[in-house]
Amino acid sequence: MGNLIMQQFGRTAALLAVGALTVVSADRAFAQANTNDSDEPFVSGEILVGTDSPQDREALINQLDRTRQNLRAGGEAPAALTSQRRGGSSVKLKVDFSASTRSRVQNNPTAELQLLEQVAEQIKSNNPRVKYAHPNWIVRLDPLDTANAADGQILNAVPDTTQQPQQAGGLPNDPVFKAGAHWHYQPLPMGMNAVGAWQAGFKGSKDIVVAVLDTGQIYNHEDNNGSPNILKGYSFLSRNLCTDQPADRKADATDTGDACPEQGKTGSSWHGTHVAGTIGAAFTNNGKGIASVNWEVSIVPVRVLGPSGGTVEDIADGILWASGYEVQGAPRIPKKADIINMSLGSRGRCTEADYGLIKDAIDDARKAGVTVVISAGNGSYLDQQGRHCSPNRENQQTCTHRQEDVQIYRPASCQGVISVSSHDVDGQLAPYSNFGNSVSVMAPGGNYRKRIKIMLGNEQREIPATVWSLVQGSIGGMDGTSQASPHVSGAIALALAKHPEWRGKPDLIAQKLKASLTPTVSGACPSGKPCGAGQLDALKLINQP
């Protein structure tokens, strides 16, 4: 029996000790920009430009001073315009405004964004070989609702089952699974039927590679320490957005935390480890901790989110690197990914004009044969005018949460991706989840307001019906489309182990997935909120001809 430790996520948390591990029920989490299109966070002074060819990029760079003289930001030409070559045919431009312009926009990000977008539009409209020019957007990892975390219930300890006999019927002996907390692996409509796949003998293969683009990976967790399922990975963080200091990209995807006390975030999410744990990062069937969808798989952590988030530049490079492309300054990935999971995104449309760098990276990933799975998003807090707001005690009536159509979330709305909405323990669209006719699939993401009954020793208890996976030093329950997406990535990985002929064919995989979906239960999708094509069923996907 392990010690019970209270770890705070938002306002309250619930724990379940599992051997030497501790289980924490956290707020639902989704990597999302904290704002809408009009005030989306961005890197000050940076514009990302894509051209038709490397030659066109060089021509743009060679004429940079003349370009600067023709630009107007608030009626004045920028004081300086410098370039940094990127891979392919893109370039990052640093815009230094004149002294008078700087004084007008100082401490006013909305005003600076308007000027940056003016400059970006002029660069594009004045050069027919420029495909896109847009700010270097920031994607932040923020809990959707920190005011309504789990209820603080502390549960009895679950015994370590390391020395106990293996479970019969092809099921894992991990105590969180045996206690009944992994509702999300059960048959439909409750879960995604990982148990059906396991009982049929499908448990994955280390030959299948899943890249997890997120906050990185905790490598020394008791339930994954030394796991052959986790590869070294890479960190593409180029800037600490909390301290606004440059960061060194490196061949180490360790999650060192994403707390930012300077901005009021004192705890780290360990989000990437939680996501990877669902797909296959845990030692499944080792008598400790949790079970993963895949008992065998190769997880490549790609750190693209750090303190206060990450930039679309870093995310795009992470996509390209995981897909086997050369990225400046980084060694090529030893074996490219079959699947990329991105439990991240922001409010906005996936247009070339405004999101071209990510859109191109996803297109290139698909050309390389990579299937891209992305969470649909958890909606937004908006005021009565439809602008982003942060809920507090004073604005409870005017700042409310709204689920939204996935078409206004990116990169989940980008062409060719598999977008994932979230359902709860009853197969209902989760109350936070985005929706839409273009959603590819609905998968378990949890709802902490609902409860499930589990057996702790000889005693029945209730815990929040969240998704249970790994966090720092413990096991955490989170709910969100961030948690739904890895169930889909995990199911596809299981299917590829059975069907190697599907590998490298993202369109075929999407077709097989759609053909395997089960219609949602009656009333699962409220009026005006279509859930997508159906619920995920891992065994039916594996059994597709």
Key terms:
545 residues; alpha/beta; Rossmann fold; Alpha-Beta Plaits; 2 domains; seven-stranded parallel beta sheet; five-stranded antiparallel beta sheet
Main sheet record: 7 strands, parallel
Estimate the strand proportion.
15-25%
Per the CATH scheme, the topology name of the largest domain is Rossmann fold
CATH superfamily of the largest domain: Peptidase S8/S53 domain
Mean pLDDT: 88
What is the CATH domain class of the largest domain? Alpha Beta
Overview of this protein structure:
With 545 residues, the chain is α/β, with parallel strands linked by helices. It has 2 domains: 14-35 and 143-158 and 184-377 and 407-542, Peptidase S8/S53 domain (Rossmann fold); 42-137, Alpha-Beta Plaits (2-Layer Sandwich), CATH 3.30.70. The protein has helices spanning 54-62, 64-70, 99-105, 109-125, 175-179, 194-199, 271-281, 312-322, 352-367, 481-498, 506-516, 538-542; strands spanning 14-18, 21-25, 29-31, 42-51, 80-85, 90-96, 130-139, 141-143, 204-214, 234-235, 239-240, 245-246, 296-303, 310-311, 339-342, 346-347, 371-375, 380-382, 400-402, 409-410, 418-423, 441-444, 447-456, 459-465, 467-471, 474-478. The protein has a 7-stranded parallel sheet with strand order 10-13-9-15-17-21-22, sandwiched between helices. Strands 5-6-4-7-14 form a 5-stranded antiparallel sheet. A 4-stranded mixed sheet has the order 1-2-26-25. A hairpin with a 4-residue loop joins β5 and β6 (90-96). The longest helix has 18 residues, at 481-498.
Topology:
Blueprint: E1 14-18, E2 21-25, E3 29-31, E4 42-51, H1 54-62, H2 64-70, E5 80-85, E6 90-96, H3 99-105, H4 109-125, E7 130-139, E8 141-143, H5 175-179, H6 194-199, E9 204-214, E10 234-235, E11 239-240, E12 245-246, H7 271-281, E13 296-303, E14 310-311, H8 312-322, E15 339-342, E16 346-347, H9 352-367, E17 371-375, E18 380-382, E19 400-402, E20 409-410, E21 418-423, E22 441-444, E23 447-456, E24 459-465, E25 467-471, E26 474-478, H10 481-498, H11 506-516, H12 538-542
Parallel strand pairs: 2-26, 9-13, 9-15, 10-13, 15-17, 17-21, 21-22
Antiparallel strand pairs: 1-2, 3-8, 4-6, 4-7, 5-6, 7-14, 11-12, 16-20, 18-19, 23-24, 25-26
Helix pairs in contact: 7-10, 8-9
